[in-house]
Amino acid sequence: MGRGRQRAKQTKVARELKYRSISTDFASLEEELRKGAGNDIPAAYADLAKEFTHDEDVEDRDDFEAER
After folding, report:
1. Which of 19, 52, 53, 68 is the most exposed place for a label (fewest CB within 10 A)?
2. Per residue in 13-48, pLDDT tens?
3. Cβ pair 49, 41 in contact under 8 A
């Protein structure tokens, strides 16, 4: 694909993104993200997760969720 055609395609995509009306369902997005927030850590990285997860972080997160 020539540079002119490539650039025209990028411009078309950029215009579509700029002028398209976006209707995002934030409630379903939040629900989907919360489902994935579980213990999805692969076994190979479990030791690193334990090293970098501090009890203070967990307490702060619990406090934050309680305020909601």
Report:
1. 68
2. 999 988 888 788 888 888 888 776 665 677 788 788
3. yes
For residue 41, how many other CB atoms are within 10 A of its CB? 13
Cβ atoms of residues 25 and 33 within 8 Å? no
Contacts of 9 (CB under 8 A, 6+ apart): 1
Dihedral (CA of 47, 49, 51, 54) sign: negative
pTM of the model: 0.31
Amino acid identity of residue 24, one-letter, is T
* Alpha helices, H only, 20-68: 26-36, 46-52, 55-67
Distance CA 34, CA 62 (A): 14
